[in-house]
Each structure stands twice: as structure tokens, then as C-alpha cells.
Amino acid sequence: MKPDLLQMGPMYPPTQKVLDETYTLHKLWEATDCDAFLASVADKITAVGSTGGKGIDDATMGKLPKLKVIAHFGVGVDSVDVDAVKRRGLTLTNTPDVLTEEVADLTLAILLAAIRRVPQGDRYVRDGKWLKGPMPLTASLQYGKTAGILGLGRIGKAIAKRLEAFNVKVAYQGRSKQSGVPYPYYADLLSMAKDVDILIVAAPGGPETRGIVSRQVLEALGPEGVIVNIARGSLIDETAMIEVLKSGKLGAAGLDVFDKEPKVPEELLALENVVVQPHVGSATHPTRKAMGQLVIDNLAAHFAGKPLVTPYSG
Ligand code: 8YV
Questions:
Q1: Which residue from 52, 265, 272, 273 could staple onto 252, CB 3.0 to 4.6 Å apart?
Q2: How many CB atoms lie within 10 A of CB 281?
Q3: Is residue 310 part of a domain?
Q4: Could you check whether the bond before residue 262 is cis, i.e. omega within 30 degrees of 0?
């Protein structure tokens, strides 16, 4: 008899294949009447698989009296009601570490793409404009730039390491000053934004951080300033960001995530000083495979009565 697993949404296909082979899967996203579906499986569900796009709320947890573990595909757990997990005495696992370097790579890619206008250069060549003359010159990541990292966790540190290799000075802001970190710490985000050229958003999403990159913070970066968001769209006041990018009060943006993704405001897409990506920080085959393996291993540990591999500790 295969154990029962409730899944909120589909995972990376090779991971999904393993889950299909290992478990009797109950796929909530395929149900037409979710309440009836949950009621029909409730007495056999001890574990749930969730994803960034399909998380789990308090009400759903409440309908699963035997639930013990939520195995989340992703490092960010903002699609899961973490307070409810704690209150209900459940355990949540996520997929840290294995995506750190990948996400840091894309951060540098979109930072450079935004400053050096890489997508625009590509279009310039393809559109035959180069035949008529050189592309206009761009801003530079060099000449003593400083980047402020909002959220110096695992990913923030991997970004910092790369920035150092690019001759960029690093500062950071977060919940607290960290010991053994060589970069200057700012207790206040606005103060850091005033002092840096580039702001890199790498902090967790969720209600606590919603909108913390405010209009004031964005304006403090200035007309030559650059914002890069690799974390969650919710951290930035998106309406304000569009306005300051449009008016030239902020220089450029490199964005992998958006507040209402996959919907991206048309006004943002109309701007030449913005480079966008479809939330692909961790989206490579080897990294998604490694993330999926952690989901598989955490579920296997749960059903074997062993300690979970990567319990969420945030
Ligand atoms: C995924 C992510 O897009 O790990 C995260 O927090 O944002 C991404 O790796 C997503 O969570 C997959 O479900």
C-alpha cells in the first residue's frame, strides 16, 4: 500500500514522477469542489506537498485533522501560513541551500542586464539598428559603486561574494547585525538606500516585509540608482516603483519577481530602463532537481518516522 499524499499544486516534472510512483496522490489543484475533495481524503492525510504558486492556508490545514508535515518546494515559504503551522504544532520543510548559487547568478545577470542594457543590445543587433550606427552608451557597474543588500541570508551572502568579484562595495540591511560579516550594517533601510547606488532585494516575502521598499526608499536611490528584486514582488511598492522609473527619479530596475505574478503591469513593461524575467532565479534543471530531491527526502523521512531533512527554521 502506497502512503497517501495531498498535493496543493504540481511540482517539477521529474520530482512529480517520483511522487506519482511513491504515493497515492491526491491532487487538490485538479479537484472541482475543493471542500468535498478535502473532506473525502482528510482522515488519511498526514503530509502535504506545497509550492510557491500553490501554498496552503490556515483553513485548509484545519480541514486535515491528521496533518503533521508540509513539504514545500521552494526556499521561500510565503505561500504557506507559517503562523498557522506553528500554532497547529505542524512541521514545515523547505528547500534551502541547493538553490543559493543559482539565484545569486541570476541576480548578477539581471543587475548587469539592467545597467548595461543587455536585452536592448540584443534587440539592437537583431533589428538591424547597428548597421546604421552604434548603440547609445550605457551606465556602468564599475567606478566605485556600492550595492546595499536587503536580506543578507544565504542568498544575500552569495550575491555579496559575486559583487565583490565585480569590484562593487557591499552594505546590508536586515533584522539584525550579523557577527563575522565584513560589510557595513544599516539598521534602517532608508539610510542605506541614501548611501548606495544599487539596492538588491533578497529578503523573505510575507506580511512582515510587504511594501518595505517604499517610494521614499526608491527615491533615495536616485536617478542613477538601480533596484534589483530576486526575492518576492510583495517587498516593493510596485506602483511607486513604476512611477519613479517613469519619471527618471530612479535609474533602472532588474526584476525577477512581481507582486501579482505572472501578471506584470503593462506600464512596467513599457519602460526601457527595466529588465524583466519570469521568476526564474532557481529555474534550471539541476537546481530544480535538487530542490525536488529535498521534497522527496523530507516526505520519505516523515513516512519512515525519521527526523526531517530540512525543517524550516525561519
Ligand atoms: C520557485 C522560489 O519559483 O524557492 C523559492 O522561494 O521562489 C522558487 O525557487 C518556487 O517557489 C517553486 O515553487
A1: 273
A2: 24
A3: no
A4: yes
**42 and 158: one domain?**
no
Q: Decide: 96 in ligand 1 pocket, CB within 6 A.
A: no
Are 164 and 265 part of one and the same domain? yes
- Cell 540591511 appears where? 173
Rounded to the nearest whole angstrom, what is the distance from the C-alpha of residue 73 to the centroid of ligand 1?
7
Q: Is residue 67 part of a domain?
A: yes
312 is a domain residue: no
Cα(102) to ligand 1 centroid in Å equals 12
Q: Using CA atoms, how far apart are residues 300 and 290, in angstroms rounded to an integer?
A: 15
Is ligand 1 within 6 A of the CB of residue 51? Answer: yes
Kindly report the pTM of this predicted structure: 0.96
* Longest alpha-carbon distance in the chain: 70
> Domain range holding 241?
100-276
Whether residue 215 lies in the annotated active site? no
CB of 270 within 8 A of CB of 246? no
Task: Find the 194 Cα to ligand 1 centroid distance in Å.
Answer: 30
Average confidence (pLDDT) per 10 residues, the chain, 314 residues: 97 98 98 96 98 97 98 98 97 98 98 98 98 98 98 98 98 97 98 98 96 98 98 98 98 98 98 97 98 98 98 90
- Ligand 1 and 282: CB distance under 6 A: yes
Residue 35 lies in a domain: yes
Instruction: List Cβ neighbours of 33 (8 Å cut-off, separation of 6 or more).
Output: none
Whether residue 59 is found in the same domain as residue 81: yes
- Among the listed residues 101, 164, 243, 261, the single catalytic one is 261
Could you please report the per-residue DSSP string of 153-221? SHHHHHHHHHHHHTT-EEEEESSSPPTT--SPEES-HHHHHHH-SEEEE-S--SGGGTT-B-HHHHHHH
Q: What is the ipTM metric for this complex?
A: 0.95
237: number of Cβ within 10 Å: 20
Query: Do 139 and 92 reside in the same domain of the chain?
Result: no
